[in-house]
Amino acid sequence: MIREFEMGEIEPLAVGAWILGTGGGGSPYLAQLNLKKLYKEGKRVQLIDPLALDDNDAVAVVSKMGAPLVGQERLVDPAHLARAMEVMEDYTGKKFRAVMSVEIGGGNALSPFLAGAMLDIPVVDADAMGRAYPEAQMTSFAIGDLTMYPLTLVDCRDNEAIVSKAASWKWMERISRKICTEVGSTSATCKAPRTGKEVKEWGVLHTVTKAVALGRAVLDARAAHADPVKAVLDHEGGKTLFRGKIIDVDRTTTGGFLRGSARIEGLDGDRGSTVELAFQNEWAVAFKDGDAIAMTPDLICLLDTVSGEAIGTETVRYGQRVTAIALPAPQVLCTPKGLQHVGPRAFGYDLDFKSVFAA
Amino acid sequence: MKRIGIDVGGTNTDAVLIDGEKVVSAVKFPTTADVMQGVVNAIQKVTADQPASASPVDAVMIGTTHFTNAVVERARLERVGAIRIAMPAGASLPPMIDWPEDLRDAVDPLSFMVEGGHEYDGRPLVPLDVPAVREAAMKIRDAGITSVGITALFSPLTTECEDEAAEIVRSIIPDARITLSNSLGRIGLLERENVTLLNSALQNLGSVTVAAFERALKEAGIGAPFYLTQNDGTVVLAEVAAANPVYSFASGPTNSMRGAAFLTGLTEAMVIDVGGTTSDVGCLVGGFPREANNVVEVGGVRTLFRMPDLLPMALGGGTIIDPETGKIGPRSVGYRITEKALVFGGDTLTTTDIAVAAGLVEIGDRDRVRHLDKTLVATLLKRIEAMVEDGVDRMKTSAEGVKLIAVGGGAFLIPEKLKGASEVLNVEHAGVANALGAAMAQVSGEVDQVFSGLSREEALAEAETLARRRAVEAGAREGSINVLDTEDIPIAYLPGNARRVRVKVVGDISFAA
Lengths: 359, 513
Fold this sequence. Notes:
The complex is a heterodimer. Chain A has 12 helices and 17 strands.
């Protein structure tokens, strides 16, 4: 099944994706501006159901890679994402049938749409995380032990790099991160191409549709002066973890990532308790009065209590009134192999994964 | 030290004269069509009882909504030349891409995107394309435009490209009024550029307005230096303010909150400023309004201004009450309260009528509201109380009861006891808190920059030194400078312990001249 992705779906996609970003992934605002502009210029993107892909179809996996803060200056440009795909096509000698995002969380949810609009290639209704994660080995494709190379990387100055081979997903992360840092900590990448079969087997499916519906639920709730946080919970079958105010934010850079924690002092029913949200770019574990109450891969989202807008780990700030919620993670992340890649131990927490949603 | 504070609002022009920390006199006038004549009147009235032998006024601080109104009304804006130095980055999102169409049309920019700019670590992105800047400047000149906004990639880190481009523009358009983005904005190219171009579009209005204030002061016989108040509760010299009108956008509510701090001596408290149509609830932190967290929209344009974090509520002295349903607002009779409200002989039931009927305040003719049902009055007061409680609760940042300061012309609407408030302070001169806030304003210096290759402590210290230097440049007295806010964010993925540091310092104005 293939259909046109409508102009009116762009904003809901951005809102939903920012929530699914679980604190990371960067704000989708600039990508949204770009896509709206392309639509105004007459470009359109087709959204293709992954189940409609042929097993042999070549699917591009694109993402903007780098530090979100740098992205606020060196504004994302659809031409570079498209260029990364072209470089890959030239290298592999294979034309892409479709393009998808590596992560539905944050600005990268819109990256395949920007490339797809430029190249007139349909976008697959799927991603490889069902959320956002900081590193290359934290994808469903890595969990599936699929090939991790080649990778193409493009910056705005005509610098183009190809990582033709890497020994592991972690090596791919390390090598590509180095190149990205060298060109100014922002770049457009086309990850290892996938076949239609691989996408169907290992992709997290229908996440574009999910993000759009989620965003729409929030926007509708806001317009109706209803509770947008409740709209998110109802829509995703989520659970409220904690409601309160940010009383401290502690951030440090170690190993090239933003790590730290935000402390929330309880309000309303949670008065008297404190929750600490630990993060590595994305929220990873929530501790209530010292006990882990939610952890990756469950999606931990921090929302503005009033507007329902997602709050990122770079923008969380003292005094904000927030509601921390948990949303169910894609099944693939919760398998024993999945947990090796994205469970609490992958982030350095000596915890056995226990889902908020376990019976 | 004597200061006059003036707040030129849409409804009223308020003025106060203070001597040291003592309020000598205060006046409130309806804002007239001829705004400047109103200012002259206000100054003359507020200084009328001064003996001839009295020491002269040391400074005049003016808060005005002129510039915000121009943007909101899409009026009195001038055509600008926009030069962005960031190519080949950002090509897909040209200047003003996210402005409302009518505002973009009103400013009608002549835009250029040229190669240049820097990386986050200070390396050049590509060399500045000097011929392209020169060509842009010539086209801007040929179009008869004299206001130019220049925005370069990562200019808050290094101003090199913007400075060089400004020099080129000035060599071609000698009378150009140039706004450089690094002087106004933070990291965030689009938002910083938006502020820069708004500022460029207000250049003419800025100088015209400041010149008019100057004449008004002269006419009122005041020779003291005068300042315009800014969004963050500080002031800058009028001639500087004329070049940066955007800094004065949200000064009204800020002044009220600063005035509230001054009147009560409190530095940590909630403030509710009750006007004719709306109330603003804000939060004082260290004697200054807490800033809004993220992006702030002005007239539909996304900016990263230093703006107070305010919760507007549709509750004012002129808010209309439906006598059938008892529904309060959101409409208001606004400035026509003196003809519309029952106590003034009108036919519209307003919150002021309820307050008069309940004996909370003496305004107009109380006999005209004697007929109101006592139960209705009590019910409505309860509802107002609930509205205020909700607003305060939404803005509070701690669970404990906080002190709430009620200011503004409609402060009498705020009950003496509120859930969530340990105390409600309703003080003398609360009605002119905004003019008082203007009179008590300080100057600030701010740094927002990415530091790399330094330890966290070194980066913070370096930022504070820079901020202090900027405060002194802005007119602060060296010994009085305090750090108001400091925040640092390590930047994910960047090497060299890179961190973005924001420091803001404030100090008293130096009157040694």
